[in-house]
Structures are given as C-alpha cells and as structure tokens.
Amino acid sequence: MKPWKMKRTEKDALMSHGPRMEEVYNSIEIHHRITRGVHRDVETAIAVARKFNNEVLRPMYLERDLKHMEDHEFLSRDIIKKAGEWRFFTLFVPKLFGGQNLHFMALYPFIEEISSVCSGLGHLIFVHYLGAATVFPTMNMRVLQTIMRDVARSERRGEPHLIDLTITEPDAGSDAQEPLLINRGRMTSTMEKVKGGYILNSRKVFISNSRLSYWHLIHSWEDKNDRASSLTQFVIPNGTKGLSFGACEKKMGTLGSTADEVICEDVFVPDRWVSLRALDPFFKNSKKGSKWAVHSVMDFVVSASRAGVGAIGTGIARGAYEIAMDYARRKRVDGELLVNHQWAQIILTDMFRNVCMTRNVYMESVYADLLAGVFKVLYKKPIHYYMKFMPKWFFTLILPLLKSRLVTYIFRKYYYDWYTNEERNITSGWASFAKYTCSDFGLVNANMALDLMGADGLRHDAGAEKCFRDVKLQQIYESTNQVNQMNAFFCMVGNRHPEVEYFT
Amino acid sequence: MNAINVDSMAAERQAFADLARDISLKKLVEHREENDRYPFGPIFEDAIRDAGIVGFYGVNLPEEQGGVGMNAGMVSVILEKISEVDASLAGVIFSNAAALEIINAAMASTGDTGIYSEIKTLGTAPIAFPMYASPDEISPAMLSKDESRIFYATIRNCALGNIADYAVVPIRRKENQPYSYYLVDLKDKGVTISRPIVSLGLHGCPMVDITIDKVPSRVIGKSGEGKKYFSAMSDRMAVCAAAMSLGIMRGSFQDAMQYTSDRYQGGRQIIDWGQVRMMLANMAIEMKIAESCVAMACQQMDCCVCGWEKTAQAAAIHIGEMATRSCTDGVQLFGGNGYMKDYPQEKRMRDARHAQSLLGMVPLRKIQYISRIIEECE
User: Fold this and answer.
1) What predicted TM-score, i.e. pTM, was given to this entire model?
2) Is the dihedral of CA A243, B267, B325, B31 positive or negative?
C-alpha cells in the first residue's frame, strides 16, 4: 500500500477542502507564467526609481516637506514636471496606449522604491495609475485610448496631464467605495439625463491630486434607491464649465500630494465622456446584471489600488528602517555605537523582517491581480508578447479598430460576463490583506525607528518623524483598515460558510 | 480612582486640576490649530505667560524660594488636565518642572540654595531643559579647570531654549566620564541658539540646538553628580510624563466617543458598529489602566513607599506606549477627518508619540529599568 499515491480525483477532492492553491499560493500559481522579460522590467523599474531617488528626491524631499507644512496649498508642479521628464506617468502604460511599456507588475516595486524616500511622491504617481486603472476595467477602449494618449503627449510636452479618481463625499467615505455598503451610504451627488449628455452635481472631498490633475474620473449614481446597480463613471477634463476645486485639506503627512475638494455645479458631461454606465443595456440585460458589474468594477479598482497602498506602506516601513540603521551606525550611546548594542540589533532585525514580510504580502496581491484581476488580459502570454514586440506604428494603425464598439463589447464580455466570484474574492481579499497588513507594519516600523532614535527621531531633519506622519494615511484611505478587514472576511474567510452574514 | 483623589492633598489637587482645566478651556481650545502651526506661526506667548501668572512654574519650587512647595505629583495633575486639550503647554510646564527637580535634588544633597537666587525669573517664566535626552547621549564639552566657564559645548534638542532666559544643561568633559548639570544664562552673548526645530509634536514647546562658546556658568550641586540628580529627577518626572500621556489619551478618547456618535456610515451611527465599539473599548480600557497606574505611582511617591521609583518609571514607559497606540486609534475612528488638522486627533497622535520620548530613548529606559532591578537583586 502506498498511501502517498493517489488518483487525480482524490487529489482534487482533497485540494478543494481547505484553501485551494489558487487562493493562497499566488506566487506559485504565477511562477511558471512569469517571462524573463517581466523579470527584466521589474529590475529596470527598481533601478530607475533608485536612480531618481539618488539624483532628484533625496537631496530635496525634507526641504520640500517643510515647504508644504508652511503652506498647505503649495503644489509640487516642478516635481511632477521632473517625474514627467523621467516618463514616470507612462512608464507602465502599454505601448498600445502610447506608454513606455514596462510590465504593470513592475509598478508596485517601483512605488515601494519611491515611497522609501518620499511617500508623497509615491502616492502622487500611484494615484495617477489608479486613475488609469479605473478607466481600464470599464473596457471603454475609446475613452481609454483618448485619455492615455493625451497623457503620453502631454508628458512629452513637459506638462504631464495626470488622472485622479473622485469618489469620496463628505458623508460617505468607505460607503462610496464598498459595494456591500453602497446602498446604505449618504451620497448626495446627482446626475440628470439631458439631450446629448448628463448634468452632474456633486461635492467630493479628500480627492488626492485633483488640483494637480487634468483628467477627473467622477463617480455618481443614476438611481439613488439602488446605487449598487447604477454606478456611472464620468470623465471630466480640466476647464469644463462648472468644475471647481474647494478647500485644500491640511493633512498631517504625505504632503507631496494634495487632498482637495472637487465641486461639480451643473456640469454638462457629453455622452462620449461617460466611460461606464452600469444601467447600460449591455450590463442590464446581461446574465449577471448591473449590480454584478458595479461590484466587479469597484473590486477591479480597489484590488489594484489597495496593493499599491501596500507598496507605499512597505516603502515607508523600509524608509524608516534605512533611516534608523543609518542613525544607529553613527550614534554613540554609552560610549558604544548604537548598532553594536544587542537590543538595537534586534529592533533593526525586526524592522527589516517587517519590510520583507509586507513586500511578500503586497506582491501576493499583485500576483492575484495579474492572474484573476483587472490586468489579467495583459498577462496572457500571446497578448504579452504581442504588446511587447509589435512596433508602435502598428498600434497607431489599428487604433480605429480598438475604438470600435465591437472591441469594447468583447472585452466587457470577457471582463464581466466571464468573470467569476472566485476570481473576484481572491483578488479583492488579497488586496485587503495587503492594504491593512502593510500599513499596520509600516506604522510599527515608524514607531520602532522613533524608539531607536530617541530625541533625534523627533526632529524633522532626521526623517523618521515624517515616516510616522505619512504612514498613518495608509491605514485610512482606500477604505479604512477596518473596512478592509471586513472585506477580507467576506472574500476569504466567511465565503465558504453559508450561514455567515456581512456588515450586520 | 485617579491621581486627584488618592490622598490627603485631594483638595489642593482638585484646585490645581480646576485651574488647569480653566486655563485650557480659555486659552488653548479655541486656537489649538493655530498654536500648533509654530514655528510657521506665532508661539502662544499668552498661554505661556498665563501659566506663570497662575503659578504653574513654581509648583515644585520650595516655598522658601517663593514656590508652592509641592512635589511632582501635583505637577502631574496640572499636566494631565492641560494635555487633554493641548499637550504643548504641558510640555512647557514639564520642561520647567524637570529643571527645578534637578536643582531641588542638588540642593537636597549640598544644602546650597544660592542657585535659586541666580535665576531671576524663577517661578514666573519657564526654564529650558533637554527633557528628551538621556545623559548617556551627551557630547563631550570643553570646560575651564574650575568649571566656572564653559569654553565650548553643544546641547541638542533643548526644549524651550529659544523662549526661556535660563537653561539647566548636562555637560561632561569626556565620553564615559561623570557629568554635571550647569545653569546657563541663555541671554549671554556666547550662547548661540538655532532656529526652532520642526518636530513631530508638542509644537508649542519648541526644541532648539544650543551652542555655548566661552560662557560663564555655574555648576548645580556637586561636580560630577549629574547622574544622581538626573536619576532623582527622572523618577519624579516619570509620574508627570505618564500623566501627560494619560491626558492626551483621555482627550482622544472623549473626542472619539463624540465623533463616532455623530458620524453615520453604512446606514447607522458608526458607534453602533461592533468593530468601532471594540476599538473604543480598547481605548477606554487602556485609559482606565493608565489612570490607575498614574494614581498608584503618585500615591507611592507621596508616601515614599519602597520602590516607588520603579512604579513611576514603569508607568511612564507603559502609559507612553499605550497613549501612542490609543491616539493612533483615535485618528482611525475619525477616518479621513482624523488625518486633517481641522480636527484635534492628528495632533494628539503626534503629541502622544512625542511625549513617549520624554526622559530619554524608550529602549534605553527599559534597559536601565531592568539594570536597576538586577542591581537590587545582587
């Protein structure tokens, strides 16, 4: 008898009890699919970020932070310009859309690198890609092409047009982002259908980078009695009549990017700038319906964004570690270098461990996203190679085809009708894990750095206190860590048990 | 039970607590955000002056020197109440009280009261003191042979150095040698004071770096006895550090209770979500534990119970950690609003973390704590 020998059916039965491979071993699942080219892209992205940190960011980030403290309305336009010169706003955009074509997986380690020096800039760059990642799942190829090609053109001109995502309202924070809570929220934005478009009225708050952005993606809901089925996404460029910016928030940290109020007063949005309408007949009459589409699109967006928050949190944790290590190598305590005190060595080791651990968590989330989330189509090997090796002129040639309704129809079919509950749970659950684990451990590391540095750590010029202020935001935005815990419970923990109820 | 009503001095403690609360409400609440802008805005001179007028800088000053003649326990009552609203003013009072504790300890050891008369603003204006640094971190300095003149010294992170007229600073000749405390006239032309350091918290109690170049000085107490005076001061002021952390925690908790009752998410008041209640419960429990620890430490100090010093130090370290954790949750319960300066929670989180570093580097204090126990065992 050889008990370790079993038939495929028996193995499958065993694997279906308890966590399945594709639920918890994302890195193994993706391992055989990673091409050498992707590996090179990740390496390139990290190297470019390090070069930028050394040449641009490190010499000025603390001074810049002070400037923001002094004047909360100060805008980092020159930094954006500089980042644009380095092509940071199209670095991870496929050639198809006029970008530099580094693989999207490389974005996350890149953001970690930038955030290890200045999470404000990491946040600023990431929010721009979050905007791009919000248009992407609408699969509205016409809108996507128009925006992304404008971003690429403007970046070449030296005035990058950034994208922001405008969801939060004064009385609806997590409610506006969480599909399970959306119907209970107190959102006040309204939209009204008129000839040729919509009239939009809304007041959105805490919107990252809106003053610095050109393209604003604004969410509103067509049916206020059933918002969970009636999400509409508008694309509004700067200069649109009725669009204005209110108060610039005075934040504790992450000062390199702004948080603003975005006000729409009777803004007319033509039909062509509606990138997604959940009550569109395509979704409404599909097998899974509008509610599924709203839930899926929200999860596509937050799955990409929460892994990014994880990367920023990890970057801050790493920044705190590097600052503490540098300090410990210079500071003498009791006549001995701090780094040679055993208790200090343990603190530094724990900090380094936290960085490694959180990096693994956010990368697991990225893998889940690539396997089953918003960018899964880009990871199919034929498409990957096609995007990689076809020349730019070819994509310009086929542009009219991509803008056709047929392409949008096919992609929507693929992304919504064929999207499964399991895929959604894995990507969304891991994204929540990444978000709250990395931000929590980022805070732990910032605290440890301050512990180790004593009075010197409290000084702005030492850098550690900035990590402490910056990392707190990571626990709050993209839904609070508590809402993320509930989402992770919904997606990964309670989903196997029919008696479980959520948000009761 | 709290620090106010644990002993026979309850009436006096209550009076000081009421006074501190009055000052906080009248002088601090309204301009909290504005005051926190320092050094990018003006310092709250009025509040600092008023604290002197009502006698907060003379609470632990001996009666014969014109003070109230109370111990650090009474200072802790004031600090706790003020910290509920704005811990920066509490930091100012803390710095002054710590400097006075050094002088008091020196006087107790030598009987020389002359040092008090050298401080012209004694009891009415605060004294600067490097209240975050452990003396183990002092850089070596150059002194004249008779120690009547400091040829060259640098004092980093000295609280109130740009506001006070006098500073009490530790100075040693060489690394690993005993150190002494000196009284330095900050108005002397040989004293150079840096621009106020932008710091994590307690913005109204600014830190500066001081460079001393050929300045007459006076050693406080006996030369080389600095460690003894620091230890005496640190044990007493540990109660005050704990009280400050407690006050910040309480302010954060009270505001969190109010906000979570007012704010709706997910179709109900957020205080009705189980997860929010759990966070509030943790804050309430930690606050209650902190209250008990501070009360116990004060009582033991007042009664000179054997080992009260360890109780005080343990309370300061533990409550400091709890306060940081609790105030971080205080921000979280406010969501996005908690991160903004329009609400007091983010300031409390920074202040709590800042106050955790009072009296020195936390791990070093823990190492010293266990060293003390090991020495006693041996």
Assistant:
1) 0.95
2) positive
